[in-house]
Design goal:
This protein has helices spanning 2-26, 43-48, 57-63, 71-78; strands at 28-30, 36-38, 83-85, 89-95, 104-110, 116-123. It is elongated, with a radius of gyration of 20 Å. The protein contains 4 helices and 6 strands, in the order αββαααββββ.
Amino acid sequence: MKKIFLSLVSIIFIVILSFILLLCYRHMQIDDNTNIILTEFSIEVWNENPDSRIYIVNDLEHKYDIISMNKNEILNLLGQNQCVVSNDHITYTLGKKKEDLFLSYYRIDFNEYDVVIKTSIYQD
């Protein structure tokens, strides 16, 4: 009976540990140099690692309804670090993935009421 109980506890422990690791892995990537790259958006990561924004921009759009935000809300959320602000759009530098030759940029377009109407990622 004790063996069965220990086996059951071990299996439960392995299942729980696997689940935790899966959740953690969901927010990470590993590059060719085995560096761990966070892919979960946070304001701190966005502001402190502008060259790694390319890895977290998808999570940003998943967590926030960017399209319905106005220009002030965008600037309050993302700041003005490594970006160009104009009347009808803001463009943030995203950095580049190792396999990319060019930098990526995140462009947020606004209508005449300063409400986001479109976002796009492009390379230059």
